[in-house]
Amino acid sequence: MEENEKTDKELVKKILEGNTQIFEIVITKTQGLVLSIIYKMIKDEEDQKDLAQEVYLKAFNKLGSFNFKAKLSTWIATITYNTCLNHLSKKKLPMLNLSDNKEKSSRELIENQFFLNTEIQTEDPLIKQERIKIVTAEIEKLPPLFKTIITLFHQQELSYKEIAMITGLPEGTLKSYLYRARKQLKNNLLTIYKKEDL
Amino acid sequence: MKNIHVSDVDIQRFAFDQNGCEPKMVEHIRTCEKCQQRVDTYLSLADIIKGQPKVTPDYDLANLVLGKLAPSKKTWTIYNYLIGFIVFLVVGVAILTIGLYQNTISYLLDNAFINQAYCFASAIIFITIILGIDLFKSFNRKLKIVNA
């Protein structure tokens, strides 16, 4: 963390001194996180590209106000999240559609083949790839907020604190959303798998 | 407790946030095969999510962004040389003028108004040149953003 912070400080200092080419390092370091947020929140490909550029232009212009209280990547991720949020709000698209989120209480959680089948748990790369493909497709069906927090927590491996900072959600609310997102994802997968089984 | 299975929220808490788990719940999950299986389901799901392919855009984001930013340091250096040259020129002219001024001191003392007007005009010209350069740079920067 200290090493990271030091690098962040050095980078920001050089950019503020006028060396804009150094900003390329910032983009390279953070674009994985930034794009994963944008791609989860925004569907349209052209909008994704425009927003990615908008995020970095905003970050560049606001760099002087960065106070090093968080990592530079977290700060840029916050700009990304807010930019996407504004975009969704302009297009009047819901961030979290709760009506889509109703859990099917009648459904029993079956001991399913998808997760626990010994055949699937083997390290067969083809089966693993197929499983990842199915889950990725199912994640895409979740509301933007759920998609984003699940990706930030499980794929980007950010802490609750960092995700709370990015999304502006209280930690308790964030945890609750994460529980619901995972449960919804698991139940959706079970439904599909059951259907395919029949 | 053994016959009552823990809730889904607690199963997830055990799987991903064990600090928030009650000891009784932990004990139950560790001894209950069914609950353990439910934990494994979530851990397995998390593992699959982690394995998702990373986003790789088919464009060079850094290149696109840098093209829209202010001119790089390298470009600025050319302007710096130009400014340096103009400043050098103006200072040179000023020194030359002072030299002339010393040689013709008596004459200039008699013509104080002309001397003041000359100094004032020199300053105005100098400031205008600097502002012009700044305006030109600003115009180029905006043009680059618009063209991008």
Description:
The complex is a heterodimer of chains A (198) and B (148). By secondary structure, chain A is mainly alpha-helical. The radius of gyration of chain A is 19 Å and the shape is elongated. Chain A has 2 domains: 2-90, Rna Polymerase Sigma Factor, Chain: A (Orthogonal Bundle), CATH 1.10.1740; 98-197, Winged helix-like DNA-binding domain superfamily/Winged helix DNA-binding domain (Arc Repressor Mutant, subunit A). Chain A has 9 helices and no strands. Chain B is an all-alpha fold and 148 residues long. The mean pLDDT of chain B is 79. Classes of the chains: A mainly alpha (198), B mainly alpha (148). Chain A binds chain B through residues 18-21, 23-24, 27-28, 31-32, 35-36, 39, 49, 52-53, 56-57, 60, 109, 111-112, 115-116, 121, 128, 131-132, 135-136, 139, 150-151, 153-155, 157, 160, 175, 178-179, 182-183, 185-186, 189, and chain B through 8-9, 12-13, 16-17, 37-38, 40-42, 44-46, 48-55, 57, 59, 61-62, 64-66, 68-74, 76.
Layout of secondary structure:
The complex is a heterodimer of chains A (198) and B (148).
Chain A: H1 2-16, H2 23-41, H3 45-62, H4 72-90, H5 113-116, H6 125-140, H7 144-155, H8 160-167, H9 171-197
Helix pairs in contact in A: 2-3, 2-4, 2-7, 3-4, 4-8, 7-9
Chain B: H1 8-16, H2 23-31, H3 33-50, H4 61-68, H5 73-103, H6 105-110, H7 112-147
Low-confidence stretches of chain B: none
How many discrete structural domains of chain A? 2
Looking at CATH, which topology of the largest domain in chain A would you report? Arc Repressor Mutant, subunit A
Main beta sheet of chain B: none
Tell me the span between the first and last alpha carbons of chain B. 66 Å
Percent of residues in helices of chain B comes to over 70%
Cα gyration radius of chain A (Å): 19 Å
Largest sheet of chain A: none
| Number of self-contained structural domains of chain B | 2
What is the H/E string of chain A? HHHHHHHHH
Q: What amount of the residues of chain A lies in strands? A: under 5%
